[in-house]
Amino acid sequence: MTRPRRPILPLLDESHSTLQSRPIRKRDPDQPSLPFDPMPSRVEPCLALLKPTVPVGPDWLYEVKLDGYRLAIHIEPKGVRIITRGGHDWTHRFPTIAAAARKLGVRTAILDGEAVVLDDHGRSDFGALQRSLGGRGGRRVSAESILVAFDLLYLDGHDLTGTELDVRRHLLEDLIPDGDDQTIRISEEIDLPAEELLEHACHRHLEGIIAKHRDRPYRSGRTGDWLKIKCVQSESFMIVGYEQSVSAGGGIGSLLLAGRRGLDWIYVGSVGTGFTASDAEYLKKTLDRLKTSRPVVPLKGKRLVLVQPTLIAEIEFRGWTDDGNLRHASYKGLREVQDNAAVFDMNGTMRS
Predict the structure, then answer these.
(1) 10 Å Cβ neighbour count for 170?
(2) Residue at 201 is within a domain
(3) Rounded to an integer, what distance in angstroms lies between the CA atom of residue 352 and that of residue 347?
(4) Of 167, 199, 230, which closes a domain?
(5) Helix and strand tally (H, E) in the chain?
(6) 3-state secondary structure of 324
(7) Are residues 241 and 204 in the same domain?
(8) Do 125 and 239 share a structural domain?
(9) Cα angle vertex 73, ends 72, 79, to 5°?
(10) Do the bridges between strand 233-244 and strand 304-306 make them parallel or antiparallel, or are there none, so unpaired?
(11) Who's near 131: CB < 8 A, 6+ residues apart?
(12) Could you report the per-residue pLDDT of 71-80, keeping only the tens digit for each?
């Protein structure tokens, strides 16, 4: 169940007059019709801080945690740009999202959201998104992906990053068309008691819950304004080798994984499930080109092939063993440098 949409209210100051920001610099000649705030070329994203429990209280709103690529959609007078979390232009990789953004009927806007591919149950599927893009390093465009928008940072001459989330959400709801068949959709609020949210999400095999403070402005980085509470842990690890399969004629039986601890690499175990036959074929072909006699993690074994630390894998797991290995690990796909992939830090720094 979702909250009903409320009417969009004007931005008001304490005297209840309409709030208009003053120009902070001379008008941009490339944007001559812009009356108020110059449009930023890029906004560093707000990131969610990992927490074990869902925060409780009326100051929080809750959304489903998505599993895709974080994108900023820049709608500009000269066209649309799609920027990854790492700052790379991927407009050409998501042409259907770009086309849908051009039809939103605004002259300038910046949407914050997640590109996802949905499975038959309406859940985001990271592996399906990766396949739609042709895998790591692939050059395919993703026609299957949609954008789930969850924030609005700029709209028709107004910089909204200093405005509280509730107002930004109302403006976003007014901008995005209704309908489950839209290429750009809004991330709906979940209207359930906070104590039931995580159980509800996990029962439906979702990634987890995102909790956001309603009254906070949009602040870049991991400030604690946004929190993530996961059903199943999922992090990025470096592939440092593979174990040859006994039954598959020297193919991949499992991938050997490592995390970071400062400047050092720490072995965290292996993963032997989650990849398809085509995944295994691509991984073996790629990893065989990265073989090294000077591995970053000193592992020994007759069937082990050790490689240079180059490929970053997204791994789902249920926890940690007493000796520091991943428990019940499953391979989900490879992360891209353009997606600002960050290897799991054993000191506790986690990516969003």
Answers:
(1) 16
(2) yes
(3) 16
(4) 230
(5) 5, 18
(6) coil
(7) no
(8) no
(9) 145
(10) antiparallel
(11) none
(12) 999 999 999 9
- What is the DSSP-derived secondary structure letter of residue 253? E
Task: Give the whole-angstrom CA distance, residue 123 versus residue 206.
Answer: 7
Q: Same domain for 218 and 257?
A: no
Beta bridge partners of 229: 209
Greatest Cα-to-Cα distance within the chain, rounded to the nearest angstrom: 76
Chain CA centroid to CA 344, Å: 15
Q: Provide the 10 A C-beta neighbour count for residue 234.
A: 18
Average pLDDT over residues 228-250: 85
Q: Check: CB of residue 100 under 8 Å from CB of residue 183.
A: yes
Active site residue 65: yes
Question: Which CATH number do you get for residue 140?
Answer: 3.30.470.30
Full residue range of the structural domain in which residue 239 is found: 233-339
pLDDT tens digit string along 336-349?
766 666 788 887 54
Specify the pTM. Answer: 0.69
With CA atoms as reference, report the closest residue to 163 among 13, 338, 2, 272: 13
User: From CA 65, how far away is CA 284, in angstroms rounded?
Assistant: 32
For the segment 86-97, what is each residue's pLDDT rounded down to a tens digit?
A: 899 999 999 999
Task: State the catalytic residue, choosing from 26, 51, 65, 300.
Answer: 65
Q: How far apart are CA 314 and CA 207, in angstroms?
A: 13
Angstrom distance (rounded) from CA 221 to CA 225? 10
- The domain total for the chain is 2
Count of all residues that appear for the chain in the document: 352
